[in-house]
Amino acid sequence: MGYQIEYRHLKYFLAVAEHLHFRKAAEILYISQPGLSRQIKEMEESLGVKLFERHNRNVKLTAVGLYLKTELTKNLKSLDGILHHAKLLEDGKDGQLNFGYVGSAMQKIIPELLLSFTKTHPNILFSLKEMDNNKQIEGLLAQDIDIGFVRLEKAPRGLELYPIVKEPFCLVLHKNHPLDATNFKTLSQCKEEHFILFDPEYSASYYEKVMEIFDGNGFNPLVSHNTIHAGSIYKLVENNFGISIVPKSLQTENNANIKFIELTKIPQRTTLSVIWNKDNQNPILGKILSLIHKEIIT
C-alpha cells in the first residue's frame, strides 16, 4: 500500500457514494473533480479494492463499495458524535442530547424530565424539535436525534420502544357548543359534525386508533381538515370550522374559547412511548433513559 487512509478519504468516498456523481460530490466538498478522483484512487489502491464501477458518465458502487458505504455511514456518525462531545467538554459542557417529539410530549413529559435531569446534570446542552413519527424514525436511524417521543405500536428494526404514558382521548369543542360534560353520552351525538384531525402522515397508527373510535360509535366522520399541530386544531375549533379528538395530554386551560370532554367510556387509549437507537453511543442517552425508567415509568 503506497498511501495511508486518512479521515478525509472516508469523507470523500461517502460523498461520491451518496451522489454517485464525481462532479456533484466535488462541488459539495469544495474541491476539484480531478482532485476528488485522485483521492478516491488513493483510497482504492491503499485498500487494494475497487469501490466504484465507472462506465462513461455512470458511476455505480461495487459490492465492496456498498458494504463500506453502509458501515462507514454508521460508524462515522459515531465518530462525529465523539468529536462533537469532545468540543462540548472543551466549552464547559458535559454533552448534548437531541430530542425529537410529537407535540403532546411537550405539554408535561419532556419539561418535567428536563427539570429533573438538569438537577444532577446541569451542563447538558439540549436540542428539541417537534417532528412527526416518521421523521423521528429517520432521525434516530441516522443518529441525527438521540431520543424520540412517539405514538407508535411497534419500533422498526434497530430501535427500542418503551411505553411511558397510556391515556384516554378528549373531544374538543367550541366553548358555545351545546354539548358539554353534563349532556354528552356517546360520540354518535357528533355524527353530523365536521371533524378536524391529526394528519394520518403524522402518525398512521394514531390515526387508525382514532378511526377505531368512530367505528365503535357506528359512523364515519366528516373530516373537514387534517393538520399536524395541536395549535392549528384549536384555532380551527375556536373559529367554528369543526370539532376534534386529541389525547388527554393535549388538554389545555389556556384557551377560553374551547372546551374538552374526556372520552372515558370508550375502550381506546393512546400510548406515548420513548424510542431510541440501540447503536447510539451518546453517553448522555443512557443516563436520561435511566431517569425515564426511574421517574416516569415507575
Automatic annotation (TrEMBL):
Belongs to the LysR transcriptional regulatory family. InterPro entries: LysR_HTH_N, LysR_subst-bd, WH-like_DNA-bd_sf, WH_DNA-bd_sf. Keywords: DNA-binding, Transcription, Transcription regulation. This is LysR family transcriptional regulator. The keyword Cytoplasm does not apply. It comes from Mariniflexile soesokkakense. Residues 5-62 form the HTH lysR-type domain. The lineage of its organism: Bacteria, Pseudomonadati, Bacteroidota, Flavobacteriia, Flavobacteriales. PANTHER family: HCA OPERON TRANSCRIPTIONAL ACTIVATOR HCAR (PTHR30346:SF0), TRANSCRIPTIONAL DUAL REGULATOR HCAR-RELATED (PTHR30346). PROSITE patterns: HTH_LYSR.
